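thread: overnight batch results

M.L. [08:02]
morning all. the overnight job finished for the chain we discussed friday. pasting input first so we're all looking at the same thing
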Amino acid sequence: MRTERNLTRRLDRVFARLDREPERPAHIDVPRMSRHRVVLFTATLAFYLAIVWAVVISSWLVRLDWQVMFFRPYQQWPQIHAFLDYYVVLGQRGPTAVMVAAWLGWRSWRQHTLRPLLTLAASLLLLNITVGAAKLGMGRLGPHYATVIGSNEMGLGGDIFPSGHTANAVVTWGILAYLASSPRARRWLSAVSAVTSLGVGLTTVYLGTHWLSDVLLGWAAGLLILLALPWFEPLVTTAETALFDLRDRWRARRGRTAPVPAVPVTPVVLKPRTAADQHAPAREPVTSVRGSRAPIHLAPGPHTARSERTPVTPAGSRRPPHADRVPRGTSPPVRPLTGG
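M.L. [08:03]
and the structure it wrote out:
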């Protein structure tokens, strides 16, 4: 009994809390930043700052960068150089944006929503702002343009740190996992995007276009953008609503019919009715009667009725003559008057 009473009291408390919470409109979906996502965002941001600090102070990470550069992976494994030249395109901004935008555009058309395309646009805009500002702010030179062995090559007017290819691969392919419609699809797409972005980053190190620390910072920069996207969902919703309203107003303006020009009408003068018109008999309506056509199966020409046809045989007519019947078009014979 006590257990049942305690359970009942707990359920009453839960329902009371639910009743006190304000109800949200059903048509507005306000996303929340989960605690797990906040922890991941904080950890990634700390990793980002740690990489920047390690490069600024020329720590062991800078020495590792020089060791990998002197190793020259493109000379160690030249047989995969041709393949990786094409594979690195998966991290370029233009081709990847076109491919992903085509897929998300088809989804937007099928689902009658602009959220996929607007989310992609918001993520690319954040990528350009954050990564571009970091590149210009730190001004690091790449391996092919290094001047002093062992230095961090910072503040020399370069634009290599962080790796734009790597960050773009993380964001562009990761947005597909972010917009997945089911948990299973999200897991598979997350794995595919992680492997793709990892391969793009290592490919830039293999080709000698980036330091290893550039790739590490590019991964962190792209992941930060993906983790921060829920904070920009209200902005995406507002933009989608504004665009749909603009579309509706444009359709209403385009669908409004133009005024039809007035056609001049000649006035008709009506004559007053006289006494003779009032007593005149009403005219019958004239109906157009079409001429009767001969049946299609009959040959053209005059035709006789069935009763007027006489069966004819080679020996002559089998019908006895009738004095009363007179063929059409002839006058009846005049009988002579006989007395008697």
